[in-house]
Design a protein that fits this description.
Blueprint lengths: L7 H12 L6 E4 L9 H16 L3 E6 L9 H14 L5 E4 L4 H13 L3 E4 L3 H7 L17 H13 L8 E4 L14 E5 L13 E3 L1 H12 L3 E5 L6 H10 L7 E5 L2 E3 L6 H9 L14 H7 L3 H11 L6 E3 L1 H13 L4 E2 L1 E2 L2 E6 L7 E7 L9 E7 L1 E5 L19 E4 L4 E9 L5 E9 L16 E2 L1 E3 L4 E8 L23 E8 L11 E4 L3 E5 L9 E7 L8
Parallel strand pairs: 1-2, 2-3, 8-9, 10-11, 12-25, 14-20, 18-21, 23-27
Antiparallel strand pairs: 4-5, 5-6, 6-7, 13-24, 14-17, 15-16, 17-22, 18-19, 19-20, 23-24, 25-26, 26-27
Helix pairs in contact: 2-11, 7-8, 11-12
This protein binds adenosine-5'-triphosphate (ATP) and magnesium ion (MG) (2 copies).
Adenosine-5'-triphosphate binds next to helix 2 and strand 8.
Keywords: Aminoacyl-tRNA synthetase, ATP-binding, Cytoplasm, Ligase, Nucleotide-binding, Protein biosynthesis
Main location: cytoplasm
GO molecular function: ATP binding; glutamine-tRNA ligase activity
């Protein structure tokens, strides 16, 4: 596989190793287990694992589980599965909650140094007193408590003597700092909630800005890579490491998060789609989750190539969703067997073909990859073609079937439409055609030409199948006009049609991928497919206007 080219983080690591600032590197992927991972997380996973890999370092998978109310072991398990599926093996697996005791002790150290205090102000009061960019903050009335008082109050917080919100522990830094993050940030809050890992042991929980640097330092992480919104938090990150007197000193670096057009990229919002049953679960193929993309039929390789190609930047941008589609087409082009599927069938009777005769036609499995060999396709008197491939009154330049016109059946013969059979409502339900035995595919026939080639399946042996066709779940996500992403849900994001596939893929297994001639790439849905009932998810159509 092609590894991504140079990026600013590689340059930093390279320098740090050369200068002896570090003698090995450790990165981490630190998800909060409050939802399933999405394609944005994939970018971070690939970045962290490949950066360490390139410099023979290590990568930790660490669950940043400091917020009991929203976290769950279901999410822990799904995250592990997704990271593995993407193709990465963590060197160590950690839970931030395993460090709660150490974090508590470091907070006690801060109090003893006069660098932290128990504060009685409410969340709203704290927000008000922190001031604005142009206006300095004001100290809380609790700011001048003595060390003894603070030690006692913090211990009582831990013991559960106060209700949620009644007290917090704050760092004592600088209420006039131009960086609002440094205006006595909250380090601990009270939450009487059961934690997925520590149960009811704790009722105080560390805040992200306090916990994260400690987690990194405890594990010996050298390069702690996060998204740009945390750039202003870096001074606080360094403050925590320094004032808590951590032995190992990690450094934070920021890169631009991945945004994709018409794609919701936030666990909170994705959870709302699941909870409100807009989709049928986190792994619904319309979801930009790793599990949704996998179920739709995306391969780990395509996602890795995509992440490498978009690169690692220092400025935010939005990637066209067509780019992701481009990479799955590229990946499957040589791998996926090609076959014919009729999604919306119309019966065709070939009146001059002998009854009770079935012949086997040979076709390449993948004309772009001849090593895949050939397959046998049955052909007989009755076949199905696509309803769209017939027009009773053809528009201009229509080269498919219409009364009196001749087309090529892919891998078979020319057929000509002679008659139409309609039901009592006037709907066309059958075509009566004739074929020309001289025109057999592969025979070298050059007698005359036809303009259209259409696909088909043999009616006597066709295997019924369900096809799920997807459109974007969100249309023009634009929250600037005051609307929410929930106001932009596409009501037609899923269309289900029933048709037929060639008999030679009857035994297709969940997650097997095919290219259906003219229709695109499809994946056997692992949830809805059962023995005797094949369900295919369309991964992507064949055509693309996207150019790299
Ligand atoms: P969300 O808001 O979707 O929950 P998050 O950043 O809160 O995202 P975490 O579980 O904290 O989710 O993220 C784990 C790691 O993934 C973090 O290091 C974070 O920076 C990174 N990450 C999350 N979203 C993106 C994204 N869109 N692009 C790149 N990295 C991301
Ligand atoms: Mg987070
Ligand atoms: Mg989040």
């Amino acid at each position: 596989e092609n590894k991504s080219s140079s990026n600013f983080l590689k340059n930093i690591v390279n320098e740090d190793l050369k200068s002896g600032k570090v003698d090995h590197i450790i990165t981490r992927f630190p998800p909060e287990p409050n939802g399933y991972l999405h394609i944005g997380h994939a970018k971070s996973i690939i970045l962290n694992f490949e950066l360490a890999d390139e410099f023979k370092g290590k990568t930790h998978l660490r669950f940043d589980d400091t917020n009991p109310a929203k976290e769950d072991t279901e999410y822990v398990e799904s995250i592990k599965e997704d990271v593995s599926w993407l193709g990465y093996e963590w060197d160590e697996l950690f839970f931030a909650s395993d460090y709660f005791e150490e974090m508590y002790n470091r907070a006690v150290l801060l109090i003893k140094k006069g660098k932290a205090y128990a504060c009685d102000s409410t969340a709203e009061e704290i927000r008000q007193m922190r001031g604005t960019l142009t206006e300095a903050g004001q100290g809380s009335p609790s700011r001048d408590r003595t060390v003894e008082e603070n030690l006692e109050l913090f211990e009582r917080m831990r013991k559960g003597e106060f209700k949620d919100g009644e007290k917090v522990l704050r760092a004592k830094i600088d209420m006039a700092s131009p960086n609002i993050n440094m205006r006595d940030p909250v380090l601990y809050r009270i939450a009487h909630a059961t934690h997925h890992n520590t149960g009811d042991t704790w009722c105080i929980y560390p805040m992200y800005d306090y916990a994260h640097p400690l987690e990194d330092a405890i594990e010996g992480v050298t390069h702690s890579i996060c998204t740009l919104e945390f750039e202003d938090h870096r001074p606080l990150y360094d403050w925590v490491i320094r004032e808590c007197e951590m032995e190992k000193v990690p450094h934070q670096y920021e890169f631009a998060r991945l945004n994709i057009t018409n794609t919701v990229m936030s666990k909170r919002k994705l959870k709302q789609l699941v909870d409100d049953k807009v989709v049928d679960g986190w792994d619904d193929p319309r979801m930009p989750t790793i599990s949704g993309l996998r179920r739709k039929g995306y391969t780990a390789e395509a996602i890795r190539t995509f992440a490498r190609e978009i690169g690692v930047a220092k400025a935010d941008s939005v990637v066209d969703s067509k780019m992701l589609e481009h990479f799955i087409r590229e990946d499957l082009k040589l791998k996926a067997p090609r076959t014919m599927a009729v999604l919306e069938p119309l019966k065709v009777v070939i009146t001059n073909y002998p009854e009770d005769q079935v012949e086997m036609l040979e076709a390449e499995i993948n004309p772009e990859n001849l090593e895949m060999g050939t397959r046998q396709i049955p052909f007989s008197r009755e076949i199905y073609i696509e309803q769209d491939d017939f027009a009773e009154n053809p528009p201009a330049k229509y080269h498919r079937l219409f009364p009196g016109n001749e087309v090529r059946l892919k891998n078979a013969y020319f057929i000509k439409c002679n008659d139409i059979v309609k039901d009592e409502t006037g709907k066309v339900i059958e075509l009566r055609c004739t074929y020309d035995p001289e025109t057999k595919s592969g025979s070298g026939f050059t007698g005359r030409k036809v303009k259209g080639t259409i696909h088909w399946v043999d009616a006597s042996q066709a295997v019924p199948a369900e096809f799920r066709l997807y459109e974007p779940l969100i249309l023009d996500e634009d929250e600037e006009d005051g609307t929410s992403f929930m106001d932009h849900i596409n009501p037609n994001s899923l269309e289900i049609v029933y048709g037929y596939v060639e008999p030679n893929i009857q035994e297709a297994k969940p997650q097997e991928k095919f290219q259906f001639f003219r229709h695109g790439y499809f994946n056997v849905d692992p949830l809805h497919s059962t023995q005797g009932h094949l369900v295919f998810n369309r991964i992507v159509s064949l055509k693309s206007s996207f150019e790299l």
